[in-house]
Design goal:
By secondary structure, this protein is α/β, with parallel strands linked by helices. 38% of the residues lie in helices and 18% in strands. It is built from eleven helices and twelve strands.
Length: 347
């Protein structure tokens, strides 16, 4: 009798153990989870309809493939909060950390092997950073860099702004003055001056990608200077631009997502992004044993970044001219330099 009881107890324990293993190695989609756990850090809210939402969608796609994921949103630029979040995820067993935003790259170790870099401090964790410097980039052995390839799209947006401006004055607005933001501004300047060498181009760095009040103030200032086309490289802060230009003849270009529905009468186009292909590519490389690398998102209709076409609120002549420029950028007839030199406020 005692032997029977012991056998029953052991069977119950075995069944419970099998049940626990199944639960801990499966996600809701039914896919078997990998040995990797991926945590993402987002600088803004994941429902911003913009940059952070695109990152969240990429993370969700990875999760749907069977990879355990987690995220933290609204994390300010590398501060104690950012460092604490990263350390907490590492303590919880996450072995891949993706920092979605160029403002986190230096803290991770992009461009430096400093002993204070997170990748150096945690050599057994793989970091995915976003930066926009052309390769080769100095990184620790456990860092992947996704180059977001901003310059080509902003060259096109600058050219389009020059084509559509009636006043001969345009404006570019971005958040923090980081190297990639300088490169965007210089690409806008190059594209605009390729169409109209005498065009005036004002540049404003608001200091915050997600502050609508700062964005609205910056736009109003530019309108006062005569700008009639605004190019935005902001995130959530774009919502401050809409009320400033609605009811005016000001035209508007954005980045990351389609913003047509917000200002249909003012909207021209957006430099559209899809972070799912880049994240999937890097994760596949990591799974194959490649713990460090550089991936530049291709500027092409299927590459992850491309201009939204057709252009809204323009005639067929402008439509044709800008499409020719897009094609020339794609096929290499136009090469857009990554120039991170501070461009100044303009014009």
């Amino acid at each position: 009798m005692l032997t029977t009881v012991i056998i029953v107890v052991l069977l119950v324990a075995l069944v419970a153990g099998v049940g626990y293993y199944y639960y801990s190695t499966q996600n809701g989609s039914g896919h078997v989870q990998s040995q990797y756990k991926v945590a993402a850090i987002f600088s803004g809210p994941v429902n911003d309809g913009n940059y952070n939402q695109l990152g969240y969608e990429a993370l969700q796609a990875l999760n749907a493939s069977g990879v355990p994921t987690a995220y933290t949103e609204n994390v300010p630029s590398p501060t104690a909060t950012f460092l604490t979040d990263v350390q907490q995820y590492i303590n919880e067993g996450f072995n891949i950390i993706w920092a979605h935003g160029g403002q986190f790259a230096t803290a991770i170790g992009v461009g430096s092997n400093s002993s204070t870099a997170l990748a150096v401090e945690y050599p057994n964790v793989i970091f995915i950073a976003e930066a926009d410097n052309p390769a080769p980039i100095t990184v620790p052995k456990n860092v992947w860099v996704i180059d977001r390839n901003f310059a080509p799209g902003f060259y096109v947006e600058g050219a389009l702004a020059a084509m559509t401006s009636r006043s001969g004055t345009i404006g570019y607005i971005v958040g923090q003055q980081l190297p990639f933001a300088n490169a965007e501004a210089n690409a806008v300047i190059a594209g605009a001056r390729s169409v109209n060498p005498s065009i005036k181009i004002y540049r404003t760095f608001t200091g915050d990608f997600n502050d609508p009040v700062k964005a609205r103030t910056a736009v109003q200032s530019m309108l006062g200077l005569g700008a009639d086309v605004i190019i935005s490289a902001l995130n959530l802060a774009d919502s401050g631009i809409y009320p400033a230009i609605q009811g005016t003849p000001t035209l508007y270009e954005s980045v990351y997502t389609n913003q047509y529905s917000s200002v249909p009468n003012n909207y021209l186009t957006s430099y559209l992004y899809n972070f799912t292909p880049p994240l999937m590519h890097v994760f596949t490389e990591i799974k194959s044993g490649v713990t460090s690398g550089y991936y530049k998102i291709p500027f092409s209709p299927s590459g992850g970044v491309y201009m939204q076409t057709p252009i809204s609120n323009v005639n067929s002549t402008v439509q044709s001219r800008i499409q020719n420029i897009i094609n020339e950028v794609v096929n290499g007839q136009i090469t857009v330099a990554f120039n991170s030199t501070a461009p100044g406020p303009g014009p």
